[in-house]
Design a protein that fits this description.
The protein has about 400 residues and is of the alpha/beta class. The chain has helices at about 15-25, 65-90, 110-115, 125-135, 140-155, 165-175, 190-200, 230-240, 255-265, 285-290, 310-315, 325-330, 345-360, 360-375, 380-395; strands at about 5-10, 30-35, 45-50, 50-55, 95-100, 120, 160-165, 180-185, 215-220, 245-250, 270-275, 290-295, 320-325, 340. It folds into two domains: about 5-190 and about 380-395, Glycogen Phosphorylase B (Rossmann fold, 3-Layer(aba) Sandwich), CATH 3.40.50.2000; about 190-375, 3-Layer(aba) Sandwich (Rossmann fold). The protein is globular.
């Protein structure tokens, strides 16, 4: 049996992309070890989850300052370097799948590479643009230039690189990545999980609230980048034209208190319902209760390349979506599949809410077309592409 090692500086239990890959490898017959951060969901320092052996390191994710980022990245890199080398002696990994950030985590596989393993670098983010967005750095600032250098040498050191969508692939090609050395594996929800929720008699395992006449929904982390303040403002502007409509927000995060205050300030607290955090396996049942998904992600140099996994979840559950006109979303979906609004513009979003509310036939058309356009980027397609690549690298 061939062995694969997966590195991720995140909590494995909630990192959906990494879990999907690892569990797909197990089903395909590989032995899989994951090196990750220890979380409240971890069942010890080393434990097994769905056939995957998970090794955890107590470090946390505070990351308040630049120095804290450096400390966490460097510490995790050293731990992964040591443990990967130790495990390599026992298991002779064929492939080390390294998931960013940071990009230079790829160097944790140096001993394994020397012993014959192939290094597969999964570029979850584009770090220079991420820094420009998060810290409002100009492109010429030294931190951005350093990130660009680390990105370039990390892609060079890897045997193969995964990118997460076509616009990012094209961007990285301008920075030295070759098409022959890279493969696009997009983020898309696992249809099988959502199909189980859609089955007759399926239950969320808890009592669900009564459904109002029309529910617009967001589910995910409550942070500024996802534009929920814009969505609440839009709802306040559109509410009079949408009798009985509510906006449900699932999830928790640093912005929750501010968002609740905004809803009260705008006089719509009775129509904006904060559900709180729910377990990942409950999400399909909540999405099933919605009429429309709302993804109000802000637009900037980084977010313009983003592709929300939530979009695929609404499409799988046959729900129409109102979404920011971001570069990557517009690359994969047409105006016949989703209802776009001008990013960062509450009035534009309010107009689309009213249109979606009042036109059931349009909602049906959008849902049907989105299914067609989603077909080439389904997880089932991406999974087979990923497994074929790992098999090729492990030969």
């Amino acid at each position: 049996m061939k062995s694969i090692c997966v590195l991720v500086q995140n909590y494995y239990e909630i990192d959906i992309r990494v879990r999907r890959k690892a569990e797909a490898l197990v089903v395909a017959g590989y032995s899989v070890d994951v090196l990750a951060l220890r979380s409240k969901f971890s069942k010890g320092e080393t434990y097994e989850l769905n056939g995957v052996t998970v090794h955890t390191f107590e470090l946390g994710k505070q990351r308040g300052s630049g120095l804290r980022y450096v400390y966490e990245y460097a510490t995790f890199l050293l731990w992964c370097t040591f443990l990967t080398a130790k495990l390599m002696k026992q298991k002779r990994f064929s492939v080390i799948d390294i998931n960013t950030l940071p990009d230079f985590l790829v160097y944790a596989g140096m001993f394994a590479k020397w012993r014959g393993a192939k290094l597969l670098l999964d570029m979850h983010e584009i770090t220079p643009e991420f820094m420009m967005s998060k810290y409002e750095y100009p492109r010429g600032k030294w931190q951005v230039r350093l990130a660009s250098f680390l990105e370039r040498i990390s892609m060079w050191y890897a045997d193969h690189v995964l990118t997460i969508n076509q616009p990012i692939q094209e961007l990285l090609e301008t920075r030295g990545l070759t098409a022959a050395k890279s493969t696009i594996i997009m983020n898309a929800a696992d249809e099988e999980i959502f199909a189980r929720a859609a089955a007759p008699g399926a239950s969320a395992g808890r009592e669900m609230p009564a459904k109002p006449p029309f529910v617009m929904m967001y589910h995910g982390t409550l942070t500024k980048i996802y534009g929920l303040d814009i969505a609440i403002t839009a709802y306040a502007q559109a509410r009079a034209a949408m009798p009985g409509a509510e906006f449900w927000i699932l999830g928790g995060g640093t912005e929750q208190a501010a968002l609740e205050a905004k809803a009260r300030e705008l006089g719509v607290a009775d129509g904006v319902r904060f559900i709180g955090s729910v377990m990942p396996d409950e999400i399909p049942f909540w999405v099933k209760m919605s009429d429309v998904g709302v993804l109000a992600t802000r637009q900037d140099v980084f977010l313009d390349f983003s592709f929300s996994n939530k979009l695929s979840e609404y499409i799988i559950m046959d729900k129409p979506v109102i979404v920011s006109r971001l570069r990557t979303i517009a690359h994969y979906f047409s105006e016949d599949a989703v209802l776009f609004f001008k990013p960062n513009d509450a009035a534009s979003l309010a107009g689309q809410m009213v249109q979606m509310y009042g036109d059931a036939a349009m909602r049906t058309r959008l849902t049907a077309r989105a299914k067609v356009e989603f077909e080439p980027i389904r997880w089932q397609v991406m999974k087979e592409r990923y497994l074929a690549l790992v098999e090729k690298l492990s030969q």
